[in-house]
Amino acid sequence: MFSWTTFGDSFIPLLWAARFTVLVSGLGILLGLVIGALICAAALSPMKPLRLFAALWVSFLRGVPLLVQLLLVYFLLPVIGINVPALVAAVVTVAICASAYISEIWRGAINALPRGQTEAAKAIGMAPLPQWTRIILPQAVTMSLPALINELILLVKASSLVSVVGIMEITRASQAQAATTFRPLEVYLAAACIYLAINLCLAGVGRWLEHRMAV
Amino acid sequence: MVRASSVEIRKVNKFYGPFHALKDIDMSIEPGKVTCLIGPSGSGKSTLLRCVNFLEEYNSGEILIDGELIGYETAGGKKMSSRRLREMRRTIGMVFQQFNLWPHMTALQNVAEGLIRVRGMARAEAETRAADALEKVGLGDRMGNHPSRLSGGQQQRVAIARAIAMEPRLMLFDEPTSALDPELVGEVLTVMKALAAEGMTMVVVTHEMGFAAHVADQVAFMEQGELVAVDAPANILHHPEDPRIQSFLRTYHERNSF
Ligand SMILES: Nc1ncnc2c1ncn2[C@@H]1O[C@H](COP(=O)(O)OP(=O)(O)OP(=O)(O)O)[C@@H](O)[C@H]1O
Ligand SMILES: [Mg+2]
After folding, report:
1. Spatial distance between the Cα atoms of A133 and A151, rounded to a whole number of angstroms
2. A120 touches chain B (CB under 8 A)
3. Whose CA is nearest to atom 9 of ligand 1?
4. Which residue among B90, B93, B102 places its CB closest to the CB of A117?
5. What is the ipTM of this complex?
6. Average pLDDT over residues A184-201
7. Sheet holding B34-38, edge to edge
C-alpha cells in the first residue's frame, strides 16, 4: 500500500536538504559562469598557449564523469595538504566542471555572430573594447541563454552526485529517509517531485527570459 | 556641401594565399566624385573596396586617403597602429550588402552608437544627431524600431544613416541594393543620389547600371583581379572598346531583358 503520510512527511527533511542542492548548483553555475568566461576568452585568444590550455581544460572536464572528478578532488586535496570543507570542494568541482560546458556555449554563441556585426563596428572606427561590450557580448549572451538554463537544469540533477562526498542534499537525504522509514517508494517519489518542481521553475524562468530578450 | 576626400590607389596587390585577388590596381578618385565599380562575380570588386578602409589588408602598393597612407606607416613598411587606423576609419563610411545593422538596438541606437562610443558625444546630443540623420534618409518615423521590424530598404537606409551620422568624407558602398527586393531598390538609390549631389566622394560596387550611367563620374570595370578600364560612364557602358566589357554588358542585358 502506498503511504500518503510517509510521502507527505518526507517533504520536510527533503526540502530542508534541498538547500544544499540549490546551493551547490546555484553557486556552481555562478562560479562556472565566471570561470567559463575566462576559459572562453582563452579559447578565443590570439595566443596559442592560451588556446591550448582552454582546449585541454574543456576536453578533460568533459571527458571525465563528474562523479570521478568529485572523488578525485575529495581524496586529492588532503594529500596535497589542502583542508577545505567538503561543501566547498563540491561547489568548486561542480563549477569547474560546468565551466567547460559554459565556455563552449559562449564560444559557440560568439562564433555564430555574423562577421558583418564587428565589421560594421570596425568600419566606423570603434575600438575593440566597445565592440565586445556593446556589439558582441549582448548578442552572444542573449543567444546563449536557453543553453545556459539547460546547463543549470543539468547541474541541479548532477548535484545529486555530491552526496558521495557526504553532503546531505536531496538525494542523500532521501536515501537516509528511505532507510529509516522502510518506505523507499514514497520517499523517492517525494524527492522526484522536488527536483521536478525546481527544474520546472528554472525552465519557466528560461522561457520568460527568452521571451523578454527577443526582439 | 560636405568636406570630401580624395582616394589614390597605386599598384595595389592582394593575395589570398597563392590566389592573386588584386593585380596592380591603379585608380584616382577626386574629391566629391562618384566612382562605380562593376564587373563579374569574383573579379575583386569587394576586395578592392574593403582595402580602401583596410577591412582587408592589401599586400603591396599604396592607398592614400587625402594623401595619407591607410593601413601601413610607410608603403611596404609595418602596419600603422590600430588607434591611428581607427582615426582614419572615422572619416570613411561603409555600407554593406547585408546591412549589418546591430539587431539588439533600435534604428536610433544603431545610428547613435558610433557617435557615443567613437566620437565620445553625450547621449542626448548623439541622439539628436542620429535623429537628424534618420530624417535625412526618410526614416524620421521609424527611429524606435528594431531592424527586424524594418523592411530591407529601410534597414539599408538606417545603415546609410549610421554611416553619414559620423560625418564621413568618403563613403564606400558594397552592392547596397543587391539584397533588396526590386521594389525597394529605388528608395535606397534615391538616398545615395542625394548624397552624391551633396558632393560626397563615393565608391560604389553595384550591378545597377542605371545608377552607374546617371550618377557616376567614372566607372571602373574589373575582371579577374585586374582593373580593365576606368573611364566616363558612357565610354564604359555605351561604347566599350574592350571585348571583356562588351561581353559582360551583353550578359547583363540578356539577363535584364524580357
Ligand atoms: N577571405 C577570402 N579567402 C580566400 N579567397 C577570397 C576571400 N575573399 C575573397 N576571395 C576570392 O577573391 C576573389 C574576389 O572576391 P570578391 O569578393 O572581391 O569578388 P567580387 O567582385 O566582389 O564578387 P561578387 O560580385 O560576387 O561580390 C574571388 O575569387 C574570391 O573567391
Ligand atoms: Mg562582392
Report:
1. 24
2. yes
3. B47
4. B102
5. 0.93
6. 94
7. B92-95, B170-174, B201-205, B34-38, B218-223, B226-231
Q: What SS3 string covers chain B?
A: CCCCCCEEEEEEEEEECCEEEEEEEEEEECCCCEEEEECCCCCCHHHHHHHHCCCCCCCEEEEEECCEECCECCCCCCECCHHHHHHHHCCEEEECCCCCCCCCCCHHHHHHHHHHHCCCCCHHHHHHHHHHHHHHCCCCCCCCCCHHHCCHHHHHHHHHHHHHCCCCCEEEEECCCCCCCHHHHHHHHHHHHHHHHCCCEEEEECCCHHHHHHHCCEEEEEECCEEEEEECHHHHHCCCCCHHHHHHHHHHHHHHCC
pLDDT at B258: 66
Query: Ligand 1 within 6 A of B210 CB?
Result: no
The whole-angstrom distance between A17's CA and the closest CA on chain B is: 41
* Separation of CA B219 and ligand 1 centre (Å): 20
CA-proximal residue: ligand 1, atom 6 (nearest): B16
- Residue among A119, A139, A142 whose CB faces B100 most closely: A119
Testing ligand 1's pocket by substitution, the residue of B13, B14, B38, B46 carrying the most ligand atoms inside 8 A of its CB is: B46
pLDDT in tens, chain B (258 residues): 668 999 999 999 999 999 999 999 999 999 999 999 999 999 999 999 999 999 999 999 999 999 999 999 999 899 999 999 999 999 999 999 999 999 999 999 999 999 999 999 999 999 999 999 999 999 999 999 999 999 999 999 999 999 999 999 999 999 999 999 999 999 999 999 999 999 999 999 999 999 999 999 999 999 999 999 999 999 999 989 999 999 999 988 888 776
Task: Find out whether the beta carbon of B180 lies less than 6 Å from any atom of ligand 1.
Answer: no
Task: Read off the pTM.
Answer: 0.89
B42 Cα to the center of ligand 2, angstroms: 7
